[in-house]
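Quick entry, no commentary yet.
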Amino acid sequence: MKTLIGPLLLLLLASACGPLSLYYREGDTVARMQQETTQCQVQALKDAPVANQLRQGPPVYWPGRTYCDGRGHCYRTGGWWEPGRVYTVDVNEGLRNRVEAQCMARKGYRPVSLPPCKQAQKRSVPARRTTRLPPLGSNSCFVKFDDGSFQIITPGLPG
């Protein structure tokens, strides 16, 4: 369990400063969008299940080194091969993402990605979780709360 805490913490910290990607349909509730997203994800998983393949990267050759002493006597150490790293690839991931996106498009949603708000934008409106997807503009941004909820802010429009 301890080995998972570090990577999960890094993932949470990284996601806090990255963009917010979600499916968007103006005026829809966040709860409905999340429910529709989950339904499409489940359907996509049925239509394009996880299909992990084990792969290995190419090996790397590390040549030996030449060492010389002060009298001009040199010797060379042998080189060695380092095997390529082994990893897994879900070959259906791209297809599953397309199936999910098509499902959401049929329901009238489109994918959007919003940047995090700057401090001045955060201070310009009271902190309030978004429960209904507001109109978006080119300057829309988001604030993420500790519980995973978010607030979408579009300067010039009510937050």
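second:
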Amino acid sequence: MLYRWLALLRRHLYLLVAAGMALFFIFYYLAGVIVAEIRSSLLPAEAKLIATGLMEYVVLKLQIAALLTGVALVVLAAVLVALRAHYVPRASSLVWLSASGAMLLVGFVLTYRVLLPQTVKVLTLLTTRAGVMAYYTVGQFVMFVFVTALLFTLCFLLPVLIAWLALQGVVGVDTLKRRRRHFYLATVTVTAIITADPTPVSQLMLSAPLIILYELTILLVSLVMRLRG
């Protein structure tokens, strides 16, 4: 199946390359708007953004454009494969797609409007109370917000994905419970990587929502399996 999909995408290689280049330039232009929005919405009044190099802002826009282009190309590739394979979505598929879209929207709103503002505010408060001026480099601050928002939004697909796998018989509730410690360790590791200056406070604030989401996923899968039985 994977080989067939790659073969289908190979026929549209030129289209994907052209689309990727066009999307990259569009996203590079929009990156300035994204940076301005993040600065106005999330940067505390006590903090200041600075650039430590001549190319830092330009490199930041290139990074944002590359990330958004990659996500857009994955979606475009999936659409091309579906069209080429003459895939007709069934009612159940539409339900799963609708649930995924709803979870992505909820995840983005909660992450950008609740989690990130509180995280940035607390970390800045800890800095200023220690008598240290809060100066953040524009690349470090914006990429922290951008990557965190992207990863946490995608993580809200976890309940839908695992529920679907459970219905397919791939994973069960007992497996999820046994893998708790592995998930917790992976969560702490990921938050340490995406946090520019990992501290116990920052890791706790970023890890806690993911751990809660995982536990809610176990409850959801238990409910789904009970209804199915």
